[in-house]
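Input (structure):
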């Protein structure tokens, strides 16, 4: 194996996800790149072999790899996903929303939509701390809006939202650096921040404050901010206005799915999750159990996630080939999957792309 060979762990996921992942890997293999694909047992395959759903061998394979290509999970591969995110500290989730001719967009004029949401990937409500309201009684915490102790609001539960200075700084820097790279390719060079700082002045207010502070280090990048509900409206009303959008975890999770709808659906939505020394790539959609086994899942999101992975691994020319080939398949429009108004199977779509490549 040459020194330049990149190791990629492949985790296929569940339900219909493997039907998108397997042809994607074959396409990548067909590009004759210096890649080695590793397929550890994860999820149901590991369970069937009498192991845990995420055995030590799979974790070791990830640790020895340069990146992971991850298929959507319904839960059986969730431990692997948790390790890829929190274990590898992949703090920036990048979800591009770029329209290509032939996408089945609901917008009257979708041409020119090309922005990326950068979602903080580790904090916010996703720290996973919840409990019973009654447990808060010893703390004497009062609701700022209700004007009485939280524990007296009635039987119910709470969740903790966490925003840290360090977590915000690193995802903000990632967003500005991404905007700078996009500007070099002809995009506007603009970062937009969305928060609910009017209602959450200490947590969301901190996120906005840290992003604003970092913006001063990037005078070549335009900066703007909106209250997140106003931002949601603007994303739909004028999506061409946006370039890079940086958001706390929950808002980024929600608005990135909305962004996918603008261009034609989650079947077109890739993503990459980046840390300081590792990254993994996955489609933004779920496992689509309703179409599992029918060979009609749209593999575009998985293929574009693979292209993002190639760029990350220093194979930008190959990534551009894939994106250009996909653009030609969609522009022709005669071999599209049902979600995009066609009747082609997943296999037929991938064969059409392979011919373009």
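Output (sequence):
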């Amino acid at each position: 194996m040459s020194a330049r060979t990149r190791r990629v762990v492949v985790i296929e996921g569940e339900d219909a996800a493997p039907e998108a992942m397997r042809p994607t890997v074959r396409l990548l293999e067909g590009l004759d790149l210096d890649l080695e694909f590793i397929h550890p047992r994860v999820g149901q395959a590991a369970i069937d072999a009498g192991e845990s759903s995420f055995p030590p061998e799979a974790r070791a394979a990830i640790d020895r790899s340069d990146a992971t290509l991850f298929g959507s999970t319904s839960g059986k591969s969730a431990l692997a996903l948790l390790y890829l995110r929190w274990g590898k500290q992949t703090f920036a989730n990048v979800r591009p929303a770029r329209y290509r001719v032939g996408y089945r967009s609901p917008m009257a004029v979708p041409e020119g939509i090309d922005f990326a949401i950068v979602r903080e990937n580790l904090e916010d409500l996703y720290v996973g701390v919840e409990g019973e309201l009654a447990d808060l009684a010893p703390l004497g915490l009062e609701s700022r809006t209700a004007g009485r102790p939280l524990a007296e609001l009635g039987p119910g539960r709470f969740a903790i939202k966490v925003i840290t200075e360090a977590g915000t700084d690193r995802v903000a820097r990632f967003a500005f650096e991404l905007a700078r790279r996009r500007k070099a390719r002809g995009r506007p060079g603009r970062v937009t921040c969305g928060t609910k700082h009017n209602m959450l002045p200490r947590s969301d207010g901190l996120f906005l404050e840290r992003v604003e502070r970092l913006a001063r280090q990037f005078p070549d990048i335009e900066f703007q901010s909106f209250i997140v509900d106003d931002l949601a409206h603007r994303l739909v009303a004028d999506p061409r206005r946006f370039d890079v959008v940086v958001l706390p975890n929950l808002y980024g999770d929600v608005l990135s799915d909305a962004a996918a709808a603008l261009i034609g659906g989650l079947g077109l939505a890739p993503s990459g999750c980046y840390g300081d020394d590792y990254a993994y790539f996955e489609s933004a959609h779920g496992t689509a159990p309703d179409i599992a086994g029918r060979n009609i899942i749209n593999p575009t999101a998985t293929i574009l996630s693979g292209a993002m992975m190639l760029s990350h691994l220093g194979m930008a020319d190959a990534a551009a080939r894939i994106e250009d080939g996909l653009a030609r398949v969609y522009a022709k429009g005669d071999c599209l999957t049902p979600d995009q108004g066609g009747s082609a199977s997943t296999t037929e779509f991938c064969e059409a792309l392979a011919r373009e490549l």
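Notes: The longest strand covers residues 92-98. The chain has a mean pLDDT of 96.
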